[in-house]
Amino acid sequence: MAIKTASSWHSDRIGETATLIRWGHFGTPVLLFPTAGGDADEAERMGLIGAVWPLIEAGRIKVYSVDSIAGRALAAGWGTVEHRCWLLNGFEAFVAHEVVPAIHADCATDGIDIIAAGASIGAFKATAVTCRYPWLFRAAIGMSGSYDLETLLGFRGNGDFYLSSPLLFAEGLEGEALALLRRRFVLLAFGEGRWESPDEAWRLAGILGRKGVPNRVDSWGPQYDHDWPTWREMLPRYLSELA
User: Fold this and answer.
1) Which long-range contacts (CB under 8 A, 24 or more apart) does 89-93 make?
2) pLDDT 10s digits, 164-212
3) N or C: which end of the chain has fewer CB atoms below 10 A?
4) pLDDT tens-digit profile of 67-79?
């Protein structure tokens, strides 16, 4: 089996063509979301795949990554605010209804739970899909998360944004979805160096804690910036723990 594969398809849910890349041959599937403007290959270019390569080579994990379609639009300010909010919501639906089935097909099973992970806005997406679709994801790893996108990007969201943002919709979770999420785990890690916003992780952890969702907040201290060297240290440690 090829250790790296790529596939692309057009999705009506996001109105664009997206690429899904896989590294690995066996093990727990990990869906790694890029940063705001990143594509599916960003993880390899920036050294994250190299950082977790021993886990890939040992057959403990298979890593998947998909283009940051919504993140690019947010970072670049494409279209109207309403369009960007629609794309955020649609991207999560695209992940649940198209990317996850593709991962299941690649793993030759429908019943395997996935770990979601990401840094910066990728952490927003990893935690969002885990909280929104807890029957598909068993854990989320959010590294240096940017969770308050309204403040970060300077816009007020609408109904689509509410559905896509864990800081908002998690407060209203109830019933079967909440019961299942309470059997999942959310890990929120950050440094305290340059460009970090620890308060956003604490806010999300507080919401999850009030809803009875298992979570943990890890501070790596002031020597760790909001940057790739931090995430190259974080990701292998947490995947070794959770995979």
Assistant:
1) 89/160, 89/161, 89/163, 89/164, 90/13, 90/14, 90/15, 90/160, 91/13, 91/14, 91/125, 91/164, 92/125, 92/128, 92/129, 92/132, 92/133, 92/163, 92/164, 93/13
2) 899 888 988 999 999 999 999 999 999 999 999 899 999 999 999 999 9
3) N
4) 998 888 887 778 8
CB 140 within 8 A of CB 115: yes
CA distances from 177 to 159, 173, 207, 242 (A): 19, 7, 15, 22
- Round to whole Å and give the CA distance between 119 and 77: 20
CATH number of 4-242: 3.40.50.1820
Give the pair of three-digit tokens for residue 186: 């959310």
Q: pTM of the entire structure?
A: 0.95
Residue 17, classed as helix, strand or coil, is: strand
* Residue-by-residue DSSP string for 147-167: --HHHHHT----HHHHHH-HH
Listed by start position, the domains of the chain span 4-242
End-to-end CA distance of the chain: 21
Whether the CB-CB separation of 66 and 19 falls below 8 Å is answered with yes
E-only strand ranges, the chain: 4-11, 16-23, 28-33, 61-66, 114-119, 137-143, 185-190, 215-219
Question: How is residue 77 annotated by DSSP?
Answer: T
Structure token digits, residue 113? 């739970």
Place of tokens 């885990």: 130
